[in-house]
Write a structure and sequence with these properties.
256 residues; six-stranded mixed beta sheet; 10 helices; 22% strand
Length: 256
């Protein structure tokens, strides 16, 4: 396999990142583009659509039953507060928030007074919250999620016997990529299995050929391989804990 990857090492001039374009110019992707004179484009292969409150009601989830919420993403935060507003539910001041990461926790400031709420966060996974959750094992947790909920988090909560209820508040939808049909990139960076699904939904006959694929996360790696494609650039790893580092390490070798 290593020999195959070495054979596929070619100069990189263009990268397509399958995420929305950063809102500010401070993104490390722009720094990478400038440093190596690259063309880096952004295009989300999937997008999120909120579940209407009328559909949420059909699930018979009573928001007032819960004493805590587990958030794994900003989307989960946005759609939790959206549903609360649509259902005219006043979020109690003593509700506890357990967030998958500090950035997700800080994002709560968009909706609540951060310093006056009980907010806990881990480093990146539900397992990071293990010790904190043990101290609050008696809570009744709401788990806002998408229709393709993160299995790792659900499995962790189930395995440890927490009283939690998944609530599908938003859905992951394939984006229309038809305008990219005749566009070629040296590298395409994927961050979720759903983005791989979107690729083949849009381009059923996609052939990898000389396109290098960068994939972040074990589930994304598996989705790439299940689609009979090659993971040329894998992250995270000890050498490349982020996608940016993985791309740069590859470019250092390929663009000599």
């Amino acid at each position: 396999m290593q020999e195959m990857l070495e054979d596929r090492t070619r100069k990189v001039k263009s990268i397509l990142v399958t995420l929305p374009k950063p809102e500010t110019e401070k993104s490390p992707y722009f720094d990478l583009a400038k440093k190596y004179n690259l063309k880096i484009d952004f295009r989300s292969f999937i997008h999120v659509e909120g579940v209407p409150s009328r559909d949420f009601r059909k699930g018979k989830v009573n928001l007032s039953d819960f004493t805590a919420v587990v958030f794994t993403s900003r989307n989960a935060v946005d759609h939790f507060f959206r549903i609360c507003e649509e259902m005219r539910y006043d979020v109690p001041a003593d509700l506890k928030y357990f967030c998958i990461s500090e950035s997700t926790a800080l994002y709560l400031q968009k909706y609540i007074q951060y310093r006056k709420r009980k907010i806990f966060f881990g480093k990146q996974t539900a397992a990071d919250l293990a010790e904190i959750l043990k101290k609050h094992a008696g809570e009744k947790f709401l788990y806002p999620c998408s229709d393709v909920a993160t299995e790792d988090t659900m499995n962790f909560l189930q395995k440890n016997g927490y009283d939690f209820t998944p609530a599908v508040l938003f859905k992951t939808v394939v984006s229309d990529l038809s305008d990219l049909a005749e566009v070629f990139y040296d590298v395409i960076a994927f961050f979720s299995p759903s983005s791989i699904q979107s690729l083949f939904t849009n381009f059923a006959d996609f052939k990898q050929n000389n396109t290098r694929i960068a994939a972040f996360g074990l589930n994304t790696h598996k989705a790439v391989k299940d689609a009979n494609l090659i993971v040329d650039i894998a992250a995270p790893s000890p050498e490349s804990p982020s996608m940016i580092m993985a791309l740069e390490n590859y470019i250092k070798k390929s663009n000599k």
